Amino acid sequence: MSIRNRDTLFNIRTYGLITVYIILLVISGIYDLQISKLIVNQYAGWAKVIEGYGELPGIITLLTAIFIYHQKKRHSSNIRTILYGSILLYSAFMLFTYAGYLLLKPFISSSYVVLIFSLVFTLISFLLNKKLKINFSENAFAFSKISLLMGIFGYVLFVQPLKVFWGRVRFRDLDALYSNFTPWFSPNGITGNDSFPSGHSAMGFVLIS
How far is the C-alpha of 148 from the C-alpha of 154, rounded, in Å? Predict the structure, then answer.
């Protein structure tokens, strides 16, 4: 297959996926409540597992990306790389903290235990990064950059702040008459609710990398 034909096929698939995605957004905007009432089962075991631990694969992906990025840039000493390295080290600490919260919350409620968990694992990963010398490929480095861009700009800087200002009520928190239901495209302001956009979905998109 020639490069031109391959690029054409890639563009067709890309635009096709975008079209399907837009159609699903429209359908969910019209029939969101009906779909939820039809299929939601709040007592399903598999759903509780996804609710509790569904973001962990994305967290592991981002931690892996940070490790690869540090390995690739370990010998660079310019100010930009040092700044990026400091931001990523802090990001690793926050990711370990969140992972610790997800893993330990069913068993331990103490925030100090979660803090110790994140400090220990951040220190271990930092030491491993210093001791190990792995020559990652350019493809692996590209994976790390794409993952970090999706994680930092997509999840941290876009999704999490938008959740606060969108203020959408979760389906399980709706009243008996569903009177406080709002479609996904309707912002409500700061209400204390944070159903949309979905953090689980955002972390799922990180796995695309």
Answer: 9
Contacts of residues 14-23 at CB distance under 8 Å and 24 or more positions apart, as own/partner, are none
Task: Report the sign of the C-alpha dihedral through residues 171, 175, 178, 182, in that order.
Answer: negative
The answer to whether 118 and 97 are in contact (CB under 8 A) is yes
Running DSSP on this structure, what letter comes out for residue 156? I
Which pTM was predicted? 0.81
What are the structure tokens assigned to 138, written together? 């350019």
Residue 145 has pLDDT above 80, yes or no: yes
Task: Give dist(CA 109, CA 28) in Å, integer.
Answer: 36
Give the chain's end-to-end CA distance (angstroms, integer).
Answer: 24
Q: Closest by alpha carbon to 28, among 139, 164, 183?
A: 183
Higher pLDDT, 38 or 82: 38
Q: What share of the chain is helix, strand, coil (3-state, %, to 5)?
A: 70, 0, 30
pLDDT tens digits along 66-95:
989 888 877 666 777 778 778 888 888 888
What sign for the dihedral angle of Cα 40, 43, 48, 51?
positive
Residue 178 has a CB neighbour count (10 Å cut-off) of 12
